[in-house]
Amino acid sequence: MSAVLSIDNWKSEADRLSFRTEAFIGGKYVAAASGKTFDRINPANGKVLAQVAACDKEDVDRAVKAARAAFDKGAWSRRAPSDRKKVMLKFADLIEKHTTELALLETLDMGKPIRDSSKIDVPGSVNCIRWYAEAIDKVYDEIAPTGPEAVSLIRREPVGVVAAVVPWNFPLMMASWKIGPALATGNSVILKPAEQSPLSAIRIAELAAEAGIPEGVFNVLPGFGETAGQALGRHNDVDCITFTGSAEVGKYFLKYSGESNMKRVSLECGGKTPNIIMADCPDLDAAATAAAWGIFFNQGEVCNAGSRLIVEESIKDEVVEKIKAVGRKLQPGDPLDPKTGMGAIVDKTQLDRVLGYIDTGKKEGAKVVFGGARVRAETGGYYVEPTIFDDVDNKMTIAQEEIFGPVLSTITFTDPEEAVRIGNDSIYGLAAAVWTRDITKALKAARRLRAGVVWVNCFDNGHISSPFGGFKQSGFGRDKSLHAMDKYTELKATWIHIGN
């Protein structure tokens, strides 16, 4: 249905939409214990969408208690893998069935284009849940190669209560990357969506229950990081925190773990991705198009956005002109228009942050050669046009700090060694890209770049079967692939002595 809707159809569907706004604890929707709510603002027009339950420590206690009781009862944690698989496949089917509704929730809540919500985010989330459902009964335990006097069984057991704290830029997809493997391995899950984009997470809780996930196994707590998020991080009965967001907040979770029960922590904390284009690039048009989409897609609100264009000096002007040409076609528009390629920045705070970085770039001597301003202010929404800086030194603030907006920094180099050095000159190490027709140069650069993912002659390509995560202050732990299941399980060895 979503593939054929016009802007008028989408707006009509949006007008009919109702919002679930409560927490989901122990299999039912409940108000925050305090009765408090917070406004969710539509970033496309600055208007209030809904008042959402503002959960805090008391609600966290309730959710953890429900999750622990469900885990100990074993209705999910000790359920046969084939049975868990059936339930999770049904869960994926229900998400797919509600694609139009969930896509609208993503777009209204966060400001991304409806074509992305309906064709990328929701289908990607469905695929993720299905993939982990199918993996449940295909991952084997092990027997150690001991001598004949013993048998050592090596088994993976669910870690227990998992708190998943997810960001606002891909609300449903980031949630699926966490809850897919966590549920598949038999855990109870408490999902804490970002306060900027909680609506889709709240809605899928109901779909999970409809699919047959038992009460208490999947809970959703909307609320603020400093209240609900901190309470989850400090709770002594949470066994694992899995977090995607800023490095600043990731460090808080490490601190909370040490101050409480030493809960397991997995972090994906953003990046400052170097996109290295060498003069022998096999296709400059493809590279420039990928570079443009790599920073302007999702309004630049992407953890692995290619925010640093590291381009060989001899081709810099040509590449920048090609990126400008793509940028002219990606001007911000109404997120409910299927023709829109760039939507709104998530909220006023983030808008001010992006504009502040643009001002800082100018003050530090970088040159704006494209864009650089707020647009569509008359709508009441939060829009920034695609922006390209030239004459950027890698030591500048805009080249070192994660902006999380459609702002590209152009940095030149003269030889591959310099390109890799610049690429690695960052506290982050989430992703990197290299464009060259010389496979030897590509492999040498990929080996030396300190990043969890390196793309060669492409950008932001991937698959659910391929792990995603970073080095350095981009965090540790991996989402996607079978490796994601590791952090949600405990490794147990059972040694059985059988004699000579």
Report on this structure.
This protein is α/β, with parallel strands linked by helices. It folds into 2 domains: 2-269, 3-Layer(aba) Sandwich (Aldehyde Dehydrogenase, Chain A, domain 1), CATH 3.40.605; 274-463, Aldehyde Dehydrogenase, Chain A, domain 2 (3-Layer(aba) Sandwich), CATH 3.40.309. The protein is built from 15 helices and 24 strands. It has helices at 7-16, 57-73, 81-97, 99-110, 114-135, 171-184, 199-211, 225-234, 247-259, 284-296, 316-329, 348-363, 397-400, 416-424, 439-448; strands at 23-25, 28-30, 37-42, 47-53, 142-143, 150-158, 161-165, 188-192, 218-220, 240-244, 264-268, 274-277, 308-312, 367-370, 374-375, 383-384, 387-390, 407-413, 428-429, 431-435, 453-456, 471-472, 475-476, 489-497. The strands form 7 sheets. The protein has a 7-stranded mixed beta sheet with strand order 14-17-18-13-12-20-21, sandwiched between helices. A 6-stranded mixed beta sheet has the order 9-8-7-10-11-23, with helices on both faces. Strand 7, helix 6 (171-184) and strand 8 (188-192) form a beta-alpha-beta unit. The protein is globular, with a radius of gyration of 23 Å. The mean pLDDT is 97.
